[in-house]
Amino acid sequence: MKKSLLLSAAVSACALIALAGCSSSSSTPAAVSTSSSSASGPAYGSPSGSSSGSSSATGADVGVATTALGSIVVDGKGMTAYFYDKDTANSGSSVCTGACASAWPAITTTSATPTVDGVTGTVGTITGVAGGKQITVNGMPIYTFASDTTPGDTKGQLFGGVWHVITPAGTEITTPNAG
């Protein structure tokens, strides 16, 4: 019984560490491929003003949705995009590796020039930690959060004080979730 409780506590501690994105190991900087796509056109999804968000995949790699936090950047499936404060803009690399990368998956593309719908910040790519093309906004790698389960979820906002939802202009939202 004690052994199973100890094992359960250890697994829980590891899960919390993974969710906090504590990995700060550095990786070798990769070449930055920039694209200044700032597509105009209809907003990604239809604005709803609801806290659950509103979006639908339009074929774009990144787009815009409306949540209780306002207009935010989302991936092609409508999942909220986040910046990680430990990353450095225009460094060409992501510091979110290992357990961090499991809890905060990189938003990737197969194209050197991601398709964009409504994002006005500068969108580009870097070689991500898994070797794919990770999308960047204003030189910062972007991620989703594994605990966000439906489009419009923003459960990662201010997580650990280092994760931030992104505006279409490519700035961090610093206000906490409403409600």
In short:
This protein has two helices and ten strands, in the order αββββαββββββ.
Structure, explained:
With 179 residues, the chain is of the alpha+beta class. The chain has one domain (2-165). Helix content is 13%, strand content 22%. It is built from two helices and ten strands. The chain has helices at 2-20, 99-103; strands at residues 33-37, 62-67, 70-75, 82-84, 108-109, 116-117, 123-127, 133-137, 140-141, 163-165. Strands 1, 5, 7, 8 and 9 form a five-stranded antiparallel beta sheet that branches. It has a three-stranded mixed beta sheet with strand order 3-2-6, with no helix packed on it. Strand 8 and strand 9 form a beta hairpin. The radius of gyration is 16 Å and the shape is globular. The N and C termini lie far apart (39 Å). The model is unreliable at 1-57 (pLDDT under 50).
Percent helix, as a range, is: 10-25%
Helical/strand content category = alpha+beta
Question: Into which percentage range does the β-strand content fall?
Answer: 15-25%
Largest beta-sheet characterization: 5 strands, antiparallel
Distance between the termini: 39 Å
Shape: globular
What's the average pLDDT? 76
**Radius of gyration in whole Å, from Cα?**
16 Å
The beta-strand count equals: 10
Which spans have pLDDT < 50 for at least 5 consecutive residues?
A: 1-57
How many domains, in number, for the residues?
A: 1
What is the chain-wise order of helices and strands?
Answer: HEEEEHEEEEEE
Number of helices: 2
